[in-house]
Amino acid sequence: MEETAASTENSAAPPAPDAVPAAAPPARSIGERLRAGRERSGLSIPAAAEKLHLDPKVIEALEADRFAEVGASVYVRGHLKRYADFVGEPGAALVSLYTARESRANAPDLTQVPQPERRTDPRLLLRPIVLVGSAAALLTAIWWVLSSSHGTSAAPTRAEVSPVVPGDASPMSPASPVAATPASLNTVAPAATPGPQPEAAAPTPSVEAPAPAPAAKPVAGRETRLQLELTSESWVEIYDSSGKQLFYDIASAGSVQSVGGRGPLRVFLGNPSAVSVQVDGQPRAIPQESITGEGARFVVNSSGSLSRARK
Length: 311
Prior knowledge:
- The chain has about 300 residues and is α+β, with helices and mostly antiparallel strands.
- The chain has eight helices and nine strands.
- The chain has helices spanning about 1-10, 30-40, 45-50, 55-65, 75-85, 90-105, 120-150, 180-185; strands spanning about 225-230, 235-240, 245-250, 255-260, 265-270, 275-280, 280-285, 295-300, 305-310.
- α3 (about 45-50) packs across α4.
């Protein structure tokens, strides 16, 4: 009996609940990874900004995932890669995450596109009626033409004129229904004399318009050769006088970038302290007034001199 009661209690006991697996830690955002890398390096935001020659507000915006405050997408990618590599995070991987995030944010929501309301055009209902009426009118016209052609009598033929024999009947005799006289039978109408025909007007000779003179080709300016030597990584943008991009990328440390274009050339350097400039083989110093917290913006004139760029 005791064994039976024990087995009954064991069968009535509720099963132990399954162990709940521990929740996976949430994935960190781009800004959290950047902030963690800076804290591992033992740097404050002002110290990191001074090392990278950036405005501290740019560092704060990157660590808070407020990328719109940094500027255009190309500037965000440049600053993000530089800052990530500086604090020990994979810059290329974080740039890929940012690009994927921007693609999802800019994708259009096709479900929100308004659909036009479909309405029945009343003219579509009148079209069959118009076609039937036109066909009936056409058939009525054909029937009227055919019936008129059958009901019209043939045109009368020219009456034959019997010659009048002298002595058989008088000109006014009842046997002669038509009083014909020899003068009326033998008279022939004179032929119409053609009058003088007007002379045709002489054709006016056409005068061809003179061909337009070819437009003068613009004279292109002198080509300027620009060479940049980098001791550290820097974002570089170079444009010619027409606005064409000659260079638009991150230049690696220890590289030498050479471009040529029609001057004046417009240049932007994200890290000007790490770049030395040569124009047509001559070294040039970057103007100090062109250097700001974001970098340096200057113009390479056609004469080879450097000056601050106007925004």
